[in-house]
Amino acid sequence: MAYQFEDRPQRILLPARVGFIATTVMISLVLNLLPWRDLTGLPDWTALVLTFWCIHQPRKIGIGAAWMLGVIMDTANGALLGQHALAYSVLAFASIAFSRRILWFPIWPQAMHVFLLLISCQLLMLAVRMVAGGAFPGLLWFLGSAVSALLWPVVTFLLLIPQRLPESIDENRPI
Amino acid sequence: MDTAPPPFFNRGPAPLVRLTFFGVLAIFLMVLDARFRYAEPLRQALVMVAYPLQQAALAPVRTVETMADYFSSKAQLQKENDALRARALQSAKDLMTMEALTGENAQLRRLTDARQRLPRSSTLAEIQYAGRDVFSRKVIVDKGESDGLQAGLAVIDDIGVVGQVTRVHATLAEVTLVTNKDHAIPVQVARNGLRAVAFGTGDGATLDLRYMAANADVQNGDMLVTSGIDGTYPPGLPVARVSRIERDAAYAFAKITCMPAAGTDRHRQVLVLSPDPSQVPPPAATADTPSKTGKPRRARPRKDG
Q1: Do B133 and A67 touch (CB under 8 A)?
Q2: What is the C-alpha separation between B11 and B78, in angstroms, rounded?
Q3: Contacts of B93 (CB under 8 A, 6+ apart)
Q4: In terms of domains, do B268 and B144 share one?
Q5: Which residues of A72-104 are buried (b: 16+ CB within 10 A; e: fewer)?
Q6: Hey, which of A74-78, B10-14, B220-224, B262-266 has the most confident mean pLDDT?
Q7: Based on C-alpha coordinates, what's the Rg of chain B?
Q8: Helix locations, B154-227, DSSP H
Q9: Total of domains in chain B
Q10: HSE on the CB side for B176, CA within 13 Å?
Q11: Residues 6+ apart with CB under 8 A from A52
Q12: Which residues, at least 6 apart from B115, have a Cβ–Cβ distance to it below 8 Å?
């Protein structure tokens, strides 16, 4: 299946603000810390938002920030210290490495790429915890990545809103 | 001669270098945390960072719960009131018998010169949230070091044993549930006093009775209570009920599956039992310097993270 990249109109976006990136990442952390009570197929919000910013703004967020977020996730949940940190670092690295490729695709193929990234992140975390003597959480745990991938268009729409707004509305502007 | 490129597009180290650095750092942390217990000060510091975020996450949930409580109908309250009154009556009857039995027991103990079992005091704690870590079964409760909690204390609810405090922060504590993988608890079959050790399986719903001979006298529906020989759990608390037994002649041990008695994932309020005052501390504690008393110490090494 070949995509007609040239025919797709591309919107010119405003530069992203670091403050907005930090705010959304914080909101995703709070979402992760909500008491969800063993809901199956619950997406890892922080991983999703982190992947989004690493793909869209690889210059403004990096592996160090991903590592810090991972360590905070580990302490808040009483998990093995460094487990999320390692997984998020690898996730950020892969997202940054593939960001140019992924951005060429329309939104649903992008979501498929993101699904692969997130599931590799989960597999890495699973491998680490199996070595450290954790219990296997069951195959339904991987549903979280699929739900995250399905949410990719929504997340893209929401997180790009500030960049789509015109800087100043000018009646006499030619374009 | 300087051949380095001009610092126009300086982006710091290459991504692969950064990944290697942070990856190694994460693995280092994991080894420190899982094999040795050196990562605790770092964890305590990071909890201070995560605490406001957690409170921010919990605040709306609490508000919604309070609203729901406020608007719960009068009929429902009336029904609940009736049920509670009936239960209080039942409890009062049990209590009267219990008082008589306690008196009788005390007298018998004095007669046999047995060591008096001192009643333990307890702290009521509320479960804040279940840890989102899918690999372990833990809950976070709202009492911490400031309320006198320490690692190793037993946690129960109104039916039986819930788990054990495994990590204590300033105002929060982590409780590992009995269903956590490889969480061991010494038990006794209430029917015949047979001693065994129940291990959590990690699936959140069952425990395994390991190392029981294939011809061991265990039956379906047998109640397992704590034996108290570990010094952590007081004796006689219900732990689990045997739900399935597979005796295979090919194996030396029977495979015995039990369901936890306490609502390990149902209730909001739990009781944290204070340490047994009559218990003699293990020799290692007396050899330690007194400055180490503030540090949480573990009854036995734990395998999970």
Answers
A1: no
A2: 68
A3: none
A4: yes
A5: bbbbbbbbbbbbbbbbbbbbbbbbbebbeebee
A6: B220-224
A7: 25
A8: none
A9: 2
A10: 28
A11: A152, A155, A156, A159
A12: B278
Q: Provide the residue range defining the domain that includes B25.
A: 15-68
**CB-closest option in B33, B61, B202 to A135:** B202
DSSP states of B224-276 as a string? EEE--TTSSSPTT-EEEEEEEEE--TTSSB-EEEEEESS-TTT-SEEEEEPP-
The first and second tokens of residue B37, run together, are 């217990």
For residues B224 and B242, what is the distance between their CA atoms, to the nearest angstrom?
A: 7
CA atoms of B128 and B143, how far apart (whole Å): 10
| Six token digits for residue B169 | 């922060």
The residues, any chain, with a CB within 8 Å of residue B80's CB and separated by 6 or more, are none
Question: What confidence tier does B288 reach under pLDDT thresholds 50, 70, 90?
Answer: very low
First to last CA, chain A: 34
Task: For tokens 């952590």, name the residue.
Answer: B232
**B288 within a domain of the structure (yes/no):** no
Query: What is each CA distance from A152 to A11, A14, A119, in whole angstroms?
Result: 18, 20, 14
Nearest CA in chain A to B166: A78
In the numeric block, which tokens belong to residue A21? 């990136």
Binary contact (A89, B26; C-beta < 8 A): yes
What SS3 state is found at A16? coil
Mean residue pLDDT of chain B comes to 79
Q: Which of residues 107-166 of A touch B (CB under 8 A)?
A: 128-129, 132-138, 141
Chain A residues inside the 8 Å CB shell of B168: none
Domain match, B270 and B135 both? yes
Residues with Cβ within 8 Å of residue A11, at least 6 apart in sequence: A164
Interhelix angle A45-56/A107-131, nearest 10 degrees: 130
CB of B134 within 8 A of CB of A74? Answer: no
Between CA B73 and CA A81 the distance in angstroms is: 45
- Tell me, yes or no, whether B51 and B150 share the same domain: no
* Rounded CA separation B159/B110 (Å): 30
- In angstroms, rounded to a whole number, what is the distance separating the alpha carbons of residues B18 and A92? 11
Looking at the structure, do residues B41 and B139 belong to the same domain, yes or no?
no
By three-state DSSP, how is residue B163 classified? strand
Q: Is A37 on the interface with B (CB under 8 A)?
A: yes
Report chain A's C-alpha Rg in angstroms. Answer: 18
| ipTM of the complex as predicted | 0.81
Record: contact B304-A133, CB cut-off 8 A: yes
Look at residue B151 and tell me if it is in a domain: yes
- What pTM did the predictor assign? 0.74
- The predicted-structure confidence for A104-159, as pLDDT tens digits, reads as follows 888 999 999 999 999 999 999 999 888 887 778 878 888 989 999 999 999 999 99
Contact B135 A129 (CB under 8 A): yes
